[in-house]
Model the fold of this input.
Amino acid sequence: MYGKVSFEEAYEIPRLADQSRDQAALYIAPKDLDRYMRQIKSITGERLEVSDAHGIGYTIVSLTVPGIQGICDPAQAEKHATEVNDYIAKEIKDHRDRLGAFAALSMHDPKQAAEELRRCVKLGFHGALLNDVQHAGPDGETYLFYDQPAYDEFWKVVVELDVPVYIHPAAPMGQYYQQHFANGVSLHLLGMITNGVFDRFPKLKIIVGHLGEHIPFDFWRINHWLEDVEKPLAAKAGDVMCKKTIYDYFKNNIYLTTSGHFCTQTLKYVADYVGPERLLFSVDYPYETIENGCGWWDGDAENIKKALGGEGAYKNVGRENAKKLFGLGKYHDCDA
Done:
């Protein structure tokens, strides 16, 4: 399939790329570390060459983990976010038919985050990617979650700008338990649901990767406990939890990508719950390879079409849903 759109795709600015080696060692096999270090720095070189060879027409790049969320000092975080956003805007400006970007944001101050997002959208960015919670405090052991009312002014601007926010896992830091990467985003997203963020902002659009960060595989149990146990207990105590079911939020506010989860059987399982209109192709480059991601999508195309419900749904997940979500204009092979 040509003209695919892929948008969980990481980069690092050159002066910090070598520092990312330690982070990368948490996720990259030793034999692949040199490949990763080469590809994380490539924006318009090898990245585009490999994309061309495997039918990706448009890529939205984002700052790699831990990114700004790992910077505990607010002033330093804001300064670094501005630096990387200016850097990537310059890198992609002559390749806008092939490349876009998500903003990197400091989430210490919701108002400042909203202002930086607004600036980046004016530069043509497609939204923002946040690497889970914002680390704060003198020792970095304060974790700022975006489901709290203090962040409503940020979400208000996100809705006003009509752009999505991608919430991505980040490596554990400090005393945060070591397996946090595997389930941190799912906890964060459930917090946004149960604390009413989507009720207050019904037009908010959130993206998560890896076919839903485990949540779809617990849909029944989460729904059962929320509807049959937690909501009645909250009502008895005079509290109000989320107004809708978890299914409603996933079908109206949340998008899921195939990043790093190249399995037709699990894609079908998730599609049966949320519908192919909530699913989008992505790779998770360079943590995963474009060869593997596209090799699955193109190589198992007939089975994927059956899993999703036909040729139309296959094209929608591969590119058309992304065109609509991001309001994309013409790009390389967009009509192929």
